[in-house]
Design brief:
alpha/beta; Rossmann fold; 399 residues; single chain; 11 helices
Length: 399
Amino acid sequence: MQDTIHSLPILFAWLHRLGYAIGAIVFAILVIEYSLRFALPRYWRAYPWTPNLTVEMEILQEVLPQLEARTRFCINSDGERGDEPPNTGEDCYRVLIVGDSIAEAWFVDQGTNWGALLQSELSRPDAKRALGATRVHVGNVARSHTTCRQMVTMLDAIRDRYRDLDLLIVVPGASDAILWSQHRAPPKWPPEPDVVPLPFAQHGHGPFAWSLKKSAIYQWLAGTRNRLVATSTVRTQCGKSLQRVREMRQRGTRIDTLPDDRGFLAAYERDLAHVCDRARSMARRVLVATPPWVGVPDKPKDEAHFWNYGFGDPYRESVHEYLSSACVDALMQRVADTTMRVARAKGLETCALRDTVDRTFESFYDRLHLTPKGCRQVATALVRTVLNADVAEPRSVPR
C-alpha cells in the first residue's frame, strides 16, 4: 500500500507530461492544418488530371464493339494525357488540347486517341521540318463536361506552366449545349445561382472539413504523393453505365420543337470569346475546332446509340424527356456556327471537324464520342490545318 502511495506522484507527473505532449501535438496539427488551408488555395498547383495516373479499362464489347477490348488512359507529371512534357529549353513544338469529352476520348486507348495520333503525325521528319522543331509534344487536358467558363478557369490556373506553348487547340461547345438541356433548356442562361465547378482533378481549393480525407493535411500529402509516385488502377465492365443511360433514353419521350435558345447562344458567344482571349494570350497559334456529331441517323434503330441531351443528368437522376435528334442537330449546328463566327472575329484558325468525320457508327459510338476510326479522321484533318503553310509562322517570331 505504501509503495502504491509513493508511486502516485510519479504517475501524476507522467500523465502531466503526456497531457502536455498531446496538447503540443494537437496544437501543431491545428497550426499546420490552418496554414495549409490558407496556403493551398493561393500557392498549390492545379492539375486538370491527377499527375502520374494510369487507368486501365476493360471495355464491354457487347456495349461498345467499335472500341478496343482493353484500353489505357495515361496522365503525365504535368497532369496532361500524353507523354512526358519537354524539359525547359528543349527544342520542342508544344501543343495543348483543351475541351470536353470529345477531346478527352476517355474510352479510346492511349495510342489511338486523336491527341496521340496528332503527335505521331506531326512527329514525322517532314512535319517537324515544317514546324521548325526536333520534337513535337501534344498534351491533352480536356475533361468531360467542361464548359467554356470552366475552360477559362482552367487556362488561368495553368498558364504559368505553358510559357513556351506553340499551339493551343480548343474544342468547345458540346458540353455547353448539354448543360443547357440538362437544365431543361431555359430561355434565360446561365441559371441562378451561377456556380462554375472547378475543372480539376487535383487542386488546393478544398472544400476542407474536419474529416481525414477532407483535411488540408491529407489533401496536401495525397497531392505530393501523386506528383512523386506513379499510381495505376484497373476498371472493369466499362460501358455498363452507358448501356443503362441509353436504355433510359429509349424509354423517354422526345421533344420535337427546339426550345428558345437565343439566351443560351448569347451567353455561349460571350463565354467563348473569353476562352479565345485567354488562349490567344497563352499560345503563338490558336486553333478552334468545332466538334463532330451524328445528326439524324438514317436508320431509326440507330437511335439506340444515343443517351444525352435530356432534361436532366441521366447519370444522377431519372430523365424522362429528351430533345429529338432533329432538335439536337439544329442546336449543334447553331453552336458550331457561333463558334466559327467568334473564332474568326478574333482572328484565330478554325477547323470544322464535322466535315471530316464519317457520320456513321464506325466512327462514333454515340452521338458525340469517337471510335479509333473517328479519332484517326480528326487527327488527319488537324494535321492538314496545323501544317497549312498559309497560317503557319516561323517559331522564331515572338508571341
